[in-house]
Amino acid sequence: MTLTFKEIKDEIEKLVPKHVNYSVDLEAGNIALITSDFEAFGGGDGLIGKIAKTVKRKIVIRPPLEDIKSQEDALTIIKEILPDEAGLGDVYFDECSREVILQCEQPGDAVGRKGANIKDIRDQTGWSVIVERKPPLFSRTVHDVREYRNQNSEERRKLLKEFGLNIHRPTRTGATWARITALGSYREVGRACHLVTTNESRVMIDVGVNIASDTDPMPFFTAPEALPLEKLDAVVLTHSHLDHAGMLPVLFKYGYRGPVYCTPPTRDLMLLLQTDYLKVGGAEGKRAPYDMEDIRTCMLHVVDVNWNETTDIAPDVKLTFHNAGHILGSSSVHLNIANGKHNVVFSGDQKYEKSWLFDAANTIFPRVETLVLESTYGATGDYQPSRQEANQELQDIVSRTILRGGKLICPVFAVGRSQEVMIAIDELFRSGTVKPVPVWLDGMIQEATAIHASHPDYLTNALRKSLLTDDGQNPFTSEWFRPVKGRELRESIIMDTSPCIVLATSGMLNGGPVMDYFKSWAAEERNALCFVGYQAEGTLGRRLQKGFSEVPLIINGKTEMVKVGCEMVTIDGFSGHSDYRQLIEFVDQINPKPKNIICHHGDYQKCNELGHTLRDKYRCRTYAPKNLETVRIL
Questions:
Q1: Helix ranges restricted to H, 404-535
Q2: CA 412 – CA 571 distance, rounded (Å)
Q3: Can you tell me the distance from the alpha carbon of 137 to that of 450, in angstroms, rounded to the nearest whole number?
Q4: How remote is the C-alpha of 35 from its chain's centroid?
Q5: At 509, phi and psi to the nearest 5?
Q6: The listed CATH number (3.40.50.2300, 3.60.15.10, 1.10.150.120, 3.40.640.10) that belongs to domain 171-381+577-632
Q7: Are 122 and 128 contacting, i.e. CB atoms less than 8 angstroms apart?
Q8: Is 26 exposed, middle or buried (0-12, 13-18, 19+ CB in 10 A)?
Q9: Which end of the chain is less congested by CB atoms within 10 angstroms, N or C?
């Protein structure tokens, strides 16, 4: 079990020489050593390594606050030390961690020979230095998150200490047990929410919204197991989509003040999507269950965890994120419970196939006794075309539409599918296969793409290389991609008679700027409507897929029937979810095999069928519980 804070300090005191001045602090699951004597602790093979092995925690070294220069003075020194050829761009301070991020056009010149510039900056300012290549696109979201966290660094430092004290609290006596309670997304798609309860702690995985339901959008927060919310030990997010993170601010509205663990891209994307959720709801006259202040509060409580880093999140629970291949920063969540007595993996939404953007979902875990597996396409007949086939289908519809002088509307989700379609279109145009036409990006697509460019380490090697090298191959900055800034430009695009492609949100035609294009262009046979993402039951997108020839829409405050005469296609191969074959292959590659598999995030038939298949194939116990049911796993 976890050492208490006092026990950790006692163990460290035994190892550190008496003449070294230092103090010990907590940063959630990490141990912070506050010292002016960096050299005394050495690297991973030195004293810091011995301490980490003894207390079994990640150790970070921080200078005392009184040792660091003011941000204004530090910036002046940074500019004096860095050569002009480094191309210094934005500079972000984080007083909580005493780190400064330097975004430079030439990181090598910024670092200097054998790190000389970085060492000089640290010695003269006291700040630890991180050098990043300046992203090819500026992200307002990433900028705002970094600035906001720095402005509230003192509060964040106190919060991280509180989180750490909770993790390192004295543990209870008694038998060890663990169970999972279904609070959302069981026998349904949307509002994902799981509660892991042990004899010691309570951890909530995902807090999603049911986008397709105005009457019952939230997970079952009122279940006795979930209350009181302020007693939860931690919240963990698999990824940023609203059906997994859209109701997170509700927890803060009703009293939760604990940590939220997610990857840095998930942190940035969920801010974008939650803010847009408020904006779209307000425009449609729907009252959101939280406001912007709740989102800001949530941001202060986020603890960043990168893939393949292990951190403690409760006295008896360790967390590791692994690539899930679904969207930027999406993760499978590995929980080690009670020092390895039981290991559970929540797959999150996942894709077990390499895509334009991401490597295939990870299948290498230390151990997995219980797997909680998404089942969106879990039925035997749920086969999807490959990415190559999807690319060919996209090429065909683009070619046909442009040839007849029409306009192609792609309703897309701002995150994930937009960027994949952009890369596919970019390749079509660059190769000369299709003559380029303007590709308009409406909604949050441009900002979501900029967030992708700000996190290159979460992309495939090839895409990361194209983003980080100035070789003209970056697909996101190609000349044919043009953001739609404002209603006036949108209206002029709608009135223009020349061929073009529009990628616009919302991806299920249940609101957003795509509706303006659809209302104006749907009736004409020369135009085309192309679905590249999942269309939930009850949405306009799903009704159109079923063949409705006209649909009721509100135009200028009145309900009118809009005829659908345009060509309509669905390209399944761009899905961010594994199909039936990929789900089976994903489980097949996990070794050793899970003893228990819990199927969720699919309708009852799909969850049940996938469970039966896996039970027969691997001789494991499978479950397809209903919401509010509990499965004991230990």
A1: 417-431, 445-454, 461-468, 487-495, 514-521
A2: 12
A3: 5
A4: 34
A5: 55, 35
A6: 3.60.15.10
A7: yes
A8: buried
A9: N
Is residue 316 within 8 A of residue 224, CB to CB? The reply is: no
pLDDT for residue 510: 80
The reported pLDDT for the residue numbered 27 is 96
Residue ranges, CATH 3.30.300.20, the chain: 66-134
Residues in the chain: 634
> 5-65 — its CATH code?
3.30.300.230
Q: Which CATH number fits domain 387-574: 2.60.120.10, 3.40.50.10890, 2.40.100.10, 3.30.70.890?
A: 3.40.50.10890
- Residue/partner pairs of 360-366 with CB below 8 Å, 24 or more apart: 360/325, 361/322, 361/323, 361/324, 361/325, 361/326, 361/332, 361/578, 361/586, 362/322, 362/323, 362/324, 362/325, 362/332, 363/586, 363/589, 363/590, 364/322, 365/322, 365/334, 365/590, 366/334, 366/336
Question: Tens digits of per-residue pLDDT, 316-375?
Answer: 999 999 999 999 999 999 999 999 999 999 999 999 999 989 999 999 999 999 999 999
Overall pTM > 0.90: yes
From-to residues of CATH 3.40.50.10890 in the chain: 387-574
8 A C-beta contact, residue 533 and residue 507: yes
Distance CA 601, CA 584 (A): 16
Res. 1 pLDDT band, cuts 50 70 90: low
Residue 99, token pair as written in the block: 């780190």
CATH of domain 66-134: 3.30.300.20
- Which tokens sit at 463? 């895409």
